[in-house]
Amino acid sequence: MSVLVGKKAPNFKAAAVINGEEIVEDFSLDQFIGSKHVILFFYPKDFTFVCPTELHAFQSRIEEFKERGVELVAVSTDTEQSHWGWLQVGKDNGGIAGITYPLVADTNKTISHNYNVLAGDFFYDDEGMLQADGELVAYRGLFLIDKEGIVRHQVVNDLPLGRNVDEAMRMVDALQFFEEKGEVCPANWKKGKEGMSATHSGVAEYLAAN
């Protein structure tokens, strides 16, 4: 599984459900270049168990992300019709009604493959027949993409392990702090704390004070 940090985020055009109800056929991250940071996150399947907890957790913080100029975009290998159907199911029944950020349909699995989060793989057996090793669904990958379309942070969880939205927010704050101040963020840095200069004297000063 390769690392995309420091590289251009793989582009795509795909069907998606936006605003919790409207299906569009050519959703792309291009619309955010030059104006927005993006948190692009992958989840394995619609109509499952850990996934709705993550989707709702991000939705509950959406205004905080928007205040920071960050767009949330979710992707799974389900179809746009499956996304739309799940959006019609209430939260009390395990559904995701109320989710307003885009849900992208990676039906042909190329987005997950290009972001290197596709679980399972294709192979040919001894008879030349195409087979699949494992389920071809997305791991819980998350990518923080800057305004220039460059991946600045990524994390990939195995299927049973839900993500921490606080950590995603912390990484947004850290990146924006660096972009604004030019200072780097030490271990366990949180918004409101001091950064440090990326020099030997800066490190020594920070360690002495902490």
Range of helix content: 25-40%
State the helix count. Answer: 6
Assembly type: single chain
The end-to-end distance, rounded to whole angstroms, is: 36 Å
Low-confidence stretches: none
The shape, in one word, is globular
CATH fold name of the largest domain, please? Answer: Glutaredoxin
Q: Strand arrangement, largest sheet?
A: 2-1-5-4-3-8-9
Series of H and E elements:
EEEHHEHEHEEEEHH
Task: Kindly state the number of beta strands.
Answer: 9
Residue-averaged pLDDT, rounded? 95
Total count of domains: 2
Rg from alpha-carbon coordinates = 19 Å
Please state the second-level CATH architecture of the largest domain. Answer: 3-Layer(aba) Sandwich
CATH domain class of the largest domain: Alpha Beta
Structural class assignment: alpha+beta
Strand percentage, roughly? 15-25%
Per CATH, the superfamily of the largest domain is Glutaredoxin
Subcellular location: Cytoplasm
Domain Thioredoxin: 3-177
Function: Thiol-specific peroxidase that catalyzes the reduction of hydrogen peroxide and organic hydroperoxides to water and alcohols, respectively. Plays a role in cell protection against oxidative stress by detoxifying peroxides.
GO molecular function, one term: thioredoxin peroxidase activity
Keywords:
Thioredoxin-like_sf, 210 residues, redox-active center, globular, Peroxiredoxin_C, alpha+beta, 2 domains, cytoplasm, seven-stranded mixed β-sheet, Glutaredoxin
